[in-house]
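[recover] target loaded
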């Protein structure tokens, strides 16, 4: 299994790199460089801007704990672990899963392990639902105002894809948290036995605190919407201002691209290609879209590097201990 997976990763990275180089050549390296120079010190504003997104996501995770557990969790510790987990997710070819295994062990809390793991599972589910709903509402809005030049069937396929994601998340959480089918217990008896405390915790949470699930989903949706503020800010610094409504449309479609390209490590090529197509479809300069994608990609890489450094520091502390 490792061989085909490794070759698939290499193929995806090569395809993404070729896509990026082709777009760079198409728009002209010097022209792109001139736009980046015009952006100038705007990067110093955009780079720390991401902390608000991590704060909103941390609030979404905080609501994945029960009311009794919440006082035993520090908000800024959640922010720290969110940054670390997102960095691992971003830089590893794991389909945005590897970082979730990192989060419970990095929490500086005396809570039992099953409570930590349950909170991560719940937060991952509400985040996926929040993103899917954000994109679905965005597609409905775009179709209503006809702001994007969708080709025949594109919006329908996109909406179907988001619906499948919503159904898949609900099904996975249901299978894991409720009563796993007999075939699953027979195939993985050890895993089922070890995960029973976590599943018991999940069942109790899902039954008692539906309002916290709703609140967690809303905070993650706000986190995705915050990306529109970053798009608006980047375009202002590039000298190509747009309305916040248009920035929100860009972010709707960016999340749609991210949902279908989640297997690409570090979003190689997909960030720039996605923004190029989105700007063109919205009737804007596709060259500006490529530059916006390049700037966002650089910001993501720096934050992912910081997250990976936090995780490495945590591992070093464990070894010392």
């Amino acid at each position: 299994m490792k061989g085909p997976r490794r070759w698939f990763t290499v193929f995806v990275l090569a395809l993404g790199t070729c896509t990026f180089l082709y777009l760079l050549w198409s728009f002209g390296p010097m022209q792109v460089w001139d736009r980046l120079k015009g952006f100038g010190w705007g990067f110093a504003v955009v780079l720390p801007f991401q902390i608000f997104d991590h704060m909103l996501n941390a609030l979404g995770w905080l609501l994945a704990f029960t009311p009794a557990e919440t006082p035993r969790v520090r908000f800024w510790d959640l922010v720290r672990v969110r940054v670390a987990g997102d960095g691992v997710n971003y830089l590893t070819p794991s389909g945005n899963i590897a970082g979730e295994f990192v989060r419970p062990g990095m929490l500086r809390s005396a809570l039992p392990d099953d409570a930590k793991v349950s909170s991560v599972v719940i937060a991952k589910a509400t985040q996926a639902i929040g993103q899917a709903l954000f994109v679905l509402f965005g597609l409905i809005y775009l179709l209503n105002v006809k702001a994007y030049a969708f080709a025949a069937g594109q919006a329908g396929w996109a909406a179907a894809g988001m619906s499948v994601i919503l159904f898949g998340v609900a099904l996975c959480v249901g299978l894991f948290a409720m009563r796993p089918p007999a075939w699953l217990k027979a195939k993985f008896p050890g895993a089922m036995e070890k995960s029973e405390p976590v599943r018991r915790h999940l069942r109790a949470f899902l039954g008692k605190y539906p309002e916290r699930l709703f609140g967690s989903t809303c905070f993650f949706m706000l986190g995705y919407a915050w990306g529109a503020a970053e798009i608006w800010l980047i375009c202002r610094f590039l000298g190509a201002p747009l309305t916040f409504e248009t920035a929100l449309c860009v972010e709707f479609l960016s999340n749609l691209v991210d949902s279908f390209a989640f297997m690409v490590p570090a979003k190689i090529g997909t960030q720039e290609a996605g923004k190029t197509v989105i700007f063109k479809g919205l009737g804007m300069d596709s060259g500006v879209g490529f530059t916006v994608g390049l700037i966002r990609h650089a910001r993501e890489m720096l934050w992912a590097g910081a997250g990976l450094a936090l995780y490495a520091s945590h591992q070093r502390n464990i070894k010392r201990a």
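[recover] notes: The chain has one domain: 28-313.
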